[in-house]
Amino acid sequence: MDVHGRIVPSYAAIDRDSTIPFWRELGGELGIDGIPRRSDSLREWMVDFEQAHYRHTAAGRRLADLLCADWAARWLPPPLRLLGARVPRVLMDEHLRRTHQFAPVSAGERALVARTVHAYFALLRLHPPRHPRYASDRYGVAAAREAAPALG
To answer: What is the pLDDT along the chain (152 residues), one digit of tens a residue?
Structure first.
């Protein structure tokens, strides 16, 4: 967990290094300028940007609800999906929950999700997926080298 009590998985260095090109590319597509080039300042920049620009809209709330439902549909069997759709809300910080007008989460929900996420990552260390997916496959240094000739 980080200093705010949020669960933060440990990433491989190659995934950590690929976050900057990912967010810079996404930001460019969305017309967002000023995204830092170094990972040590990205998190602070993102929090500051969110505080300054992120506001509640009905469409944003619908999207947040759909993302939570999509997460549950991808990870859980049908009988658990309604309950599981709350999990992403537990992982949100308080500002994001308030922005989307989600109900507060209980200490019990927070503790259950924290134990579950920690257990999941512990199991991944014991039994890694056969075909892991890394953000670096798309945004890493090797992917940038492959794309460079196409850029001219």
So the answer is: 454 455 555 566 666 677 788 888 888 899 998 888 887 788 889 889 988 988 999 999 999 999 999 989 888 889 988 888 889 999 898 888 999 999 999 999 999 988 988 888 888 888 877 665 555 565 555 555 655 555 44
Question: Residue 73 in contact with residue 65, Cβ under 8 Å?
Answer: no
What is 31-87 written as a DSSP string? T-----SSHHHHHHHHHHHHHHH----HHHHHHHHHHHHHHHHHHS-GGGHHHHTTH
Which has the closest alpha carbon to 144: 27, 24, 32, 12? 24
